[in-house]
Specification:
The complex is a heterodimer of chains A (251) and B (346). Chain A has 251 residues and is mainly alpha-helical. Helices cover 81% and strands 0% of the residues of chain A. In chain B, the strands form 4 sheets. Chain B has a 6-stranded parallel β-sheet with strand order 10-9-8-11-12-13, with helices on one face. The interface between A and B is large, with 44 and 50 residues.
């Protein structure tokens, strides 16, 4: 077409050369400088969240086993895996010469962790599984998936290994909830309404630090919604039910 | 299983549809919410060919809307996530509809094979461009004589001649139709010269020079809204085939003896019983659809599980003949001037 044709209010891709150039260089352009102070500062909190998250996941799976003792062996296996992940992520921080801000991370998880503890004391297994095996696992998987694309080579390798395991954990909670859906649906919805907004809040809280690590908030949220929606679908909820549940993340 | 990846024609339209489907969380959301929305498998359908074979398929809405075109990363994610969903659902052959294939091609998404824990298998996807090109050519051959244009004497201009569909249309016109003259218009001159060499025919020209000379104009490039067309300078009668996406030609070309035809749309011989084409605003949504979508169905009917249309300038005459014959066999026909779908606006 003519050269004088201009990009207008109806944007067309064919006229959008700049983006095409951007796309061919994505891989090298998107990687941040891992050695700057600002990167390390942000990493000290993100890395701590990950380490604390894996520790709490370990503790939570051991706790969940007290509610379903016949699953002890399987849950202990999952818990052990989480400790292995914790070690891996600790090594990632050390590799960059960063000390994890564990105090920040404990505070970061405190509200969600508090809800888990209350549910555990009441013996609300569905709520415990929703928090740990659905919400936290989906949050972790989404963050790891985004991180892999922009991580330093050492952390990238570690994280790729972790993600493979995490899908198994998501699957564990999913299977139990699927089998018991008829009896646990109401509690699942209720617990979701309380806890999904916390995930959204946590995501907002780390957005700035994440962006220093070149992790885009929009992408994190989308990855979370994909993992979350996939799990709920596998559990056996229909589109409308999932839409209703996801609403809690938006308001 | 066949799959169709589509999207709404505008953000407003998308919200309205989401509300109808009960996806309240995104229906109420702003564009930022839509940018984080996962792809949705909206509908499953069973389709029976004119030969009696039955196949099953799914429609996936990528949750992309044209307003996201300026957000390169978002657009890229929407396409790749929808493709991942199609593959995870075990769909054998999925067509990339609307802007999906354009984004895939222009943003060079071939380099993004790994999506989370899924390694995309390209052979499961097709742009549907071979069928679209064949349908546009058939629309030209059938409808030009109906409005008094003799193909043997006709000058045909192809706007966007170097694109995947455009070059295939040129190839077909030169080799299969006996038209009098082919005018080729495109933004980039180098590929245009290569195409002319390959075809051993056709005249390279500008849009301004081509329009007054052409009895038939095939548009396979999106037309910017600001372009001013003087319809007095057009030949009468003239046939305009709107083969681009979105289809907005009839806003520019109105007048006596100017016939605008929605290009690349087919009609199935039977009602399909789906809601998805209502979402695409077809005039007869139970039967009409984009030819690229139909290509996925045809390939599934034929058990031809391969990325039949893929990459740029790979559409041969043989492939067009194959998909055309299969299209007719299974009950598809190109829509003509008497069957005009509503305007698809963006």
């Amino acid at each position: 077409m003519h050269n004088e044709l201009k990009l207008t209010d109806m944007q067309t891709l064919e006229s959008n050369k700049k983006t095409i150039q951007e796309s061919t260089n994505t891989i090298s352009l998107d990687l941040p400088d891992f050695t700057t102070d600002s990167y390390k500062d942000a990493y000290s909190r993100i890395n701590a969240i990950v380490i604390e998250g894996e520790q709490e996941a370990h503790d939570n799976y051991i706790s969940i086993a007290t509610l379903i003792p016949n699953e002890l062996e399987e849950l202990t296996k999952l818990a052990r895996m989480e400790m292995k992940h914790k070690k891996g992520f600790t090594a990632c921080g050390r590799n960059l010469g960063v000390e994890a801000d564990m105090e920040f991370a404990k505070k970061f998880f405190s509200e969600l962790h508090g809800n888990f503890k209350i549910a555990l004391e009441k013996g609300n297994l569905t709520t415990c599984l929703l928090i740990q095996a659905i919400l936290i696992e989906a949050f972790a998987i989404s963050a790891y998936n985004v991180y892999i694309r922009v991580a330093d080579p050492f952390a990238k390798k570690i994280t790729e290994g972790v993600v493979k395991d995490e899908y198994l954990h998501l699957n564990y909670g999913q299977e139990w909830l699927k089998e018991n859906l008829s009896t646990c649906k109401e509690e699942l919805m209720k617990a979701n309404k309380v806890n999904l907004p916390l995930i959204k809040k946590m995501l907002d809280e780390v957005a700035n630090d994440a962006s220093v690590l070149a992790m885009d908030k929009e992408e994190l949220m989308e990855e979370f919604m994909i993992a979350y929606q996939d799990t709920l679908m596998e559990i056996g909820l229909d589109n409308r039910e999932i839409a209703r549940m996801a609403m809690s993340a938006i308001v | 299983m066949f799959g169709l990846i589509g999207h709404s024609t505008s953000f407003e339209d998308a919200k309205r549809k989401a509300s109808l489907l009960g996806f309240d969380h995104i229906a109420d959301g702003d564009l930022d919410v839509w940018c984080t929305a996962p792809p949705q498998l909206v509908e499953n359908v069973e389709v029976k060919s004119a030969t009696g074979i039955s196949i099953e398929g799914s429609y996936i809405d990528s949750c992309f809307v044209p307003e996201m075109l300026s957000r390169f990363k978002t657009a890229r994610r929407k396409v790749l996530n929808a493709m991942e969903l199609a593959q995870k659902k075990g769909i054998n052959i999925t067509a990339l509809g609307g802007f999906t294939s354009i984004i895939f091609e222009n943003f060079n998404l071939l380099q993004h094979k790994q999506i989370r824990n899924t390694s995309l298998e390209w052979e499961r996807f097709t742009t549907g461009n071979t069928h679209t090109a064949w349908v546009i050519c058939k629309q030209l051959e059938i409808n030009a004589p109906r409005i008094g244009i003799d193909l043997k004497k006709a000058t045909v201009a192809v706007i966007g001649a170097t694109g995947d569909i455009g070059s295939a249309v040129c190839r077909w016109l030169i080799n299969k139709t006996g038209i009098s003259e082919l005018l080729m218009v495109a933004r980039q001159q180098e590929p245009l010269a290569l195409l002319q060499k390959e075809l051993d025919g056709g005249t390279i020209t500008s849009l301004d020079d081509a329009l007054p000379l052409a009895d038939i104009v095939v548009w396979v490039a999106s037309m910017p809204k600001t372009i001013e067309i003087d319809t007095d300078n057009l030949k009468k009668p003239c046939l305009m085939i709107d083969g681009g996406y979105p289809k907005n030609l009839d806003e520019k070309f109105q007048g006596e003896n100017i016939h605008v035809l929605k290009g690349g749309i087919v009609e199935f011989f039977n009602d399909i019983g789906w809601n998805m084409m209502e979402l695409a605003e077809m005039q007869n949504p139970q039967r009409e659809m984009f030819a690229c979508f139909a290509e996925a169905m045809i390939l599934e009917f034929e058990k031809c599980h391969t990325n039949f249309s893929w990459g740029r300038n790979n559409i041969s005459l043989e492939k067009m003949e194959f998909i055309g014959a299969a299209s007719l066999k299974h009950g598809f026909s190109a829509i003509g001037l008497d069957k005009q779908p509503k305007v698809l606006t963006v």
